Amino acid sequence: MAGVLASPNLPLHPPVRKSAPGRRAIPWVPIVLITIALLYLALFLFVPLAAVFYEALRKGATVYWAAISEPDAISAIKLTFIAALIAVPLNLVFGVAAAWAIAKFDFRGKSLLITLIDLPFSVSPVISGLIYVLIFGLQGWLGPWLSEHDVKIIFAVPGIVLATIFVTFPFVARELIPLMQAQGREEEEAAAVLGASGWQTLWYVTLPNVKWGLLYGVILCNARAMGEFGAVSVVSGHIRGETNTLPLHVEILYNEYQFAAAFACASLLALLAVITLVIKTVVEIRYEQREKEFRT
Amino acid sequence: MTIQVLDVCKRFGTYDALSGVNLEIKPGELVALLGPSGSGKTTLLRVIAGLEKPDSGRILFNDEDTTETRVQEREVGFVFQHYALFRHMSIFENVAFGLRVRPRALRPSEKEINRRVHDLLKLVQIDWLSDRYPHQLSGGQRQRIALARALAIEPKVLLLDEPFGALDAKVRKELRRWLRRLHDEINLTSVFVTHDQEEALEVADRVVVVNNGKIEQVGTPDEVYDHPATPFVYQFLGNVNLFEGRVHNGVADVGGGRILTPEHHGVADTAATAYVRPHDIDIASAAGSDMVEATLNHATRIGSVVRLELSRKDNGALVEVELSRERFEHLNVIAGNLVYFKPRRARVFLAANQDSSAA
Amino acid sequence: MTTGIFTRPHSVLPGFNMALGFTIFYLSLIVLIPLSAAFIKTFTLTWEAFWTTVTAPRVLASYWLTLRTSLLAALINAVFGLLVAWVLVRYKFPGKRVIDALVDLPFALPTAVAGIALTAVYATNGWLGKPLAEMGVKVAFTPLGILVALTFIGLPFVVRTVQPVLEDLEKEMEEAAQSLGASQWQTFQRVIFPTVLPAVVTGFTLAFARALGEYGSVIFIAGNMPMVSEITPLIIITKLEQYDYAGATAVAVVMLVASFLLLLAINTLQWWSRKQRAQESV
């Protein structure tokens, strides 16, 4: 023992920082940071969300129920669903096709294509509606032809559906493209060598591997489709009972100072948003679980 | 089935992966495509499979031109380096896949599929795992499943891309021998790609040495090891000592020793290099005729052999010699002693040949 | 061998022509052709007419308003978004999962609902508007209200771009810094912050782009008074209601050009950010 202590090769300890507190001290920094973060989120998220439900139920349950079961509200809800029911599947098919072409093949102009697909994201909702008016409106390109054949697109349901398709266009594709790119092509090549056709490969090999990403994209697409306001506002005629989606109906009620009714309808949309977030979280958890399994 | 590769060229961008490759594979053979990374061996395998289309040249299966045939129709079995098992399908489903995707007319009944899959799983000794999923299996097990899946479609040829590359050494050795036994049992024409020369020499009927998109030599393991055609083949298949010198009329003078090289008997005074394996060098503690003087730098025991590093007295060049333990002890030398060595066997390449060898 | 205008794809998988064909067809039909309608319509205007329209004082005031509120909102989101991401990734506290999910609320909530909710909360008799009014700060129906709405709408962008980067940050890097004697702040300043900066900038740009075009959540809480609290999208709508299609389109084109330039900037930033992360994972 003495020999070891006497050895000149023992390392010197680095100087201890006197200011470092022991682990028992209160962690001030995390607490302060968490508080500020929560305050910020409360100011901009939690309070407004709570306000929707509060204002909706303030005048009591009867007023609430009357507001959402009133015929104009019902038809607004119906129209909202129709728009989503058409837009989401179409954009889903598009998303799968685009992701297949982009992820499984190499070709020139790929990044340009991806940028173009992202375009609707960067366009203001008002402009999204405007461009369809320019084509299908009375003074638009196809205006005269349409009125000749008595087909109404703008200020009617088809226009609303088109505008909804435009604003929700990239959602599914944006989820699938990076996901399918990250998964590579080997499984698809293996399927090809084993004799599978394109459809068989897509259905049995590719899609099951991206099912969580697909679901995620569909949920976001749907939330946006049902909640779109600006674009739909431009192409609708605000004709009560006919060309109003639920968000537009909320606006009308609000502008007529029917606040309780407006918030009642708004609360339905807020509920939809919360459900969307819940499903999204569940999907994320399942996806993380699955990834953890596969990494072993 | 006979496979013929005729003058195949393949380019990726500005990079020539294959330049004018010609090869014939006989029915029932187990052939190794051996070469360093980037030599083009995997590209060649994928071209045969139909996963890549050659820019020029043809592929013939049993004398039929299959260059334009789609991979789905080639009836080849392909085993990927990282297995490419369908991660969301059970082992059973993975192996059954090739049978399930057949068009109605050619698809076997459910009962038949069941039987075939289980037979294959028994063949690869994994029947007891048929309900598990790929991520629950070890690397070696996944590899065998990938093999079973490829065999399920009764392919005419089996192609394996670095099948044991992702496994650890012991598993690699076991699977290597298992593959050889399997091949002897089913006698299917097989081609596998590897960068491990030990693997190629141990398993294959014939070895194809590939380098820089060209074939350097084709032959049995003994042929390529004992009679390498080019310096590259010599260097790739094992350790080597180089002795620079000159050749004149069938005798090579390589600095202190002379070697008979009857294959160069017509050559007049040309620069040449002798390639000598470490275990083909005789070494003694006393001088003798034609022996080169050197100092022993160090001796390292590795398992059952002893590896010596010598420095030549005349030019200081390092020489590596391999001896059995017994012989080394008999030699009775320690670091710093003088020793004398002489190549017992060498392959001499003239200067012109050496330009074609790649670093 | 070439197939039409595309060079042969480097893959033997089937379905390329069909998938790409459908993609381009649908893209053109829904996005490209309608967008080009705006530009084509603008070409029917003479240059002078176009110029007068897009530089009218009221329009200019709206550009300035939209620009500065969007920029400021994105800045606020950059700072606080980084904070929120930090807190969510590095600390544990009750309800974290719920709060993490709620960060995406602006993505999921319809903009009109957000608009009336924010107005209700920040009006002078609202929950938060009342105490603020007592301090002399009026939020609703002023540019400040616009700022609040745009902050709401851009909230998730920075958080969601920064979170993955923070999660991937290797603990060993920080431990190395600490073992070399760096304090917590120094470690943050010199090691962590430079790594997340590209993500913060990307998130900032995304939030900024989104705020520029925002309509639904703003028009309820803004005063919509010309020259004071009127945003550019509202000007477009006003012109449409007056059947001034050409004027509306002219202003729209200005906004489109701005958003395309931003989109380009975003894509470049994301590419840069991805490159940096790839280098660092070596």
Estimate percent helicity of chain A. Answer: over 70%
Reading the helices and strands of chain A in chain order gives HHHHHHHHHHHHHHHH
Question: What is the average per-residue confidence, as pLDDT of chain C, rounded to a whole number?
Answer: 86
Q: What is the approximate shape of chain C?
A: globular
Query: What is the CA-CA span between the terminal residues of chain C?
Result: 38 Å
Rg of chain C, please? 23 Å
Uncertain runs of chain C? 1-8
Task: Work out the strand percent of chain A.
Answer: under 5%
In terms of DSSP E residues, the strand content of chain C is under 5%
Order of helices and strands of chain C: EEHHHHHHHHHHHH
Shape of chain A: globular
Tell me the number of helical segments of chain A per DSSP (H or I, 4 or more residues long): 16
Oligomer state of the chains in this structure: heterotrimer
In spatial order, strands of the major sheet of chain C run 1-2
Distance between the termini of chain A: 46 Å
- Give the beta-strand count of chain C: 2
> Tell me about the biggest sheet of chain C?
2 strands, antiparallel
| Helix/strand/pairing category of chain A | mainly alpha
Fraction of helical residues of chain C: over 70%
Description:
Chain A is mainly α and 296 residues long. Chain A is built from 16 helices and no strands. Chain A is globular, with a radius of gyration of 28 Å. The model of chain A is unreliable at 1-23 (pLDDT under 50). Chain B is an alpha+beta fold. Helix content of chain B is 26%, strand content 34%. Chain B is built from ten helices and 20 strands. In chain B, helix 2 packs parallel to helix 4. Chain C starts with a strand and ends with a helix. Chain C is built from twelve helices and two strands, in the order ββαααααααααααα. Chain C has a two-stranded antiparallel sheet with strand order 1-2. In chain C, helix 6 crosses helix 8 (143-168) and helix 11 (232-241) packs antiparallel against helix 12 (245-280). Chain C is mainly alpha-helical and 282 residues long. The interface between A and C is large, with 99 and 91 residues.
